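Researcher: Next sequence.
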Amino acid sequence: MSEAEARPVKTRYDVTLPFGIGVPAWPGEPMPVITRLADMDKGDDCTVTRLDFAVHYATHLDAPLHFVKGGGDVAGLALDVLMGPCQLVRIDNEIDAIGPEAFEIAPGCTRLLVKTRNSALWDDPAHAFHRDFTAFTPEGAQWLVDRGIRLVGIDYLSVQRFYDSEPATHRILLGAGVIAVEGLDLRAVEPGEYHLTCLPLRLVGADGSPCRVVLDGPASTRQKDRRQDTSEQP
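Model: Next structure:
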């Protein structure tokens, strides 16, 4: 086996939902509106697009200002939290409320992504908003804070359950400075260790922002098996 063949195979996963093609908005918030200010198809010299949207649409993050009065905005978020090693864990489909000790957190982990039964909803990106999605309880949020998590991501549009009477989960996380990344598409990604890149727009005074989120790490088991099967063919 050559040195190149012996190196671990790395794969890049874009875990960002497509913006503006039917992904549901949070109830009460508008769908994004994309219009042309200029259009070469209509004889203009160039194409210029205007976008009107709520900052918590599709794949996005929450800054402390979202639920903490006087909290920091998106422009002030630390890049060293938004990029770096992360752990992806998988929650059993039977779990609809993520509490303390719901999974193992690796020692030293500060960035955590959680894959749940929610991921299957993105098989139809234009589905009607699903209110019974899996998310964290306030106790689960406090557990993350106590474990030193600085960024947590989940595969639906909120880290908090839809029917909670109070936004305690958000307030616990954001009050402790934990960045919440919501609306991830984790269908193709297996549990494991990855390098996270999560970059929002640098929106001054904003409580959230759309993000492009990318994971770099080992290929999925399925991809490894496919390469192995191919290599064994005559």
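Model: The chain has one domain: 3-231. The two ends are 18 Å apart (CA to CA).
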